[in-house]
Amino acid sequence: GKRTVFLSNNPTHTRQESAAKLTKLGLPTAVGDILNSSMVMVDFLKRHLPTARLFVIGEQPLYNDLRDAGFKFAGSFSEIDAVIASFDRTFTYAKLQIAFDAIRHGARFFATNGDRFCPVPGGGQPDAAAIIAAIEACTNTRCEAIVGKPSTYMMDAVMSLLRLSPGRCLMTGDRLETDVQMGLNAGMATALALTGATKLAEAETSPIKPTYIIQDLGELVDW
After folding, report:
1. In angstroms, rounded to a whole number, what is the distance separating the alpha carbons of residues 51 and 12?
2. Which residues, 6 or more positions from 66, have their beta carbon under 8 angstroms from its beta carbon?
3. What angle do CA 173, 13, 157 make, to 5 degrees?
4. From 87, 116, 130, 203, which residue has the greatest number of CB atoms within 10 Å?
5. Which tens digits make up the pLDDT trace of 66-86?
6. What is the distance between the alpha carbons of residues 66 and 39, in angstroms, rounded to a whole number?
7. How many Cβ atoms are within 10 Å of 214's Cβ, its own excluded?
8. Within 10 A of 154 (CB to CB), how many other CB atoms are there?
């Protein structure tokens, strides 16, 4: 058998929750085989700003991961060293104001992921890209690093976990601009699954070209 590692840009679920969900769906999954953008953000901050006081625009699992890693959260904008933007369904003008004031006061600006929307049954929800854009627009700055797919930060974390050369890996997912692009950037074979965010017509006209296009992940079983 081949090892399977699951990568997620969604920081609203813990790795434990994701592993439990996959196991319930019939894919027995260990927590160590889950890599999400929260985990990569923790590693990024430990490497670059280990003592930073944070202001997080995100949901509770991201807060928990950062807190458990030892990071502190600032009480006022003048104490904030870094603003962390993420998928946040409780985003408010008040949060935007704090981010604005902090960045204007010299805080750094990073994000977990740059997805435009998150697919949900019946449609989608605006994702972290909308929050990043709002902060960039009012502060006239650019987000310094987005650590999720397709970034090199996420890829480096994957390769460290797998300890394999990219040529021995297959990256599969349902998004061209994140899943497929990251695999291509790393020199992996890629398989676009037509089960979620991308339709066949989009794949055929996109400049991002996967190695394979599959209807669903079941096609990989016999590979």
Report:
1. 24
2. 38, 41, 42, 45, 54, 56, 73, 84
3. 55
4. 87
5. 999 999 999 899 999 999 999
6. 9
7. 16
8. 27
Instruction: Tally the C-alpha atoms within 13 A of residue 28's C-alpha that lie toward its C-beta.
Output: 0
Domains delineated in the chain: 38-146 (3.40.50.1000), 164-223 (3.40.50.1000)
Nearest Cα neighbor of 54 from 39, 71, 37 is 71
Report the C-alpha gap between 157 and 90 in whole angstroms: 29
Do 19 and 36 contact (CB within 8 A), yes or no?
no
60-68 vs 37-48: helix crossing angle, rounded to 10 = 40
- Angle between helix 152-162 and helix 37-48 axes, rounded to 10 deg: 100
- Of 143, 168, 140, residue with least CA distance to 153: 143
Q: Looking up tokens 């990989």, which residue turns up?
A: 220
201's tokens: 């017509």
Strand pairing category for 82-85 and 117-120: unpaired
In this predicted model, what pLDDT tens digit does every residue of 72-121 receive, in sequence order? 999 899 999 999 999 999 999 999 999 999 999 999 999 999 999 988 88
Residue 30 CA to residue 50 CA, distance in Å, equals 28
Lookup result for tokens 């890629």? 190
Letter for the amino acid at 171? M
CA distance 41 to 28: 26
CB of 37 closer than 8 Å to CB of 9: yes
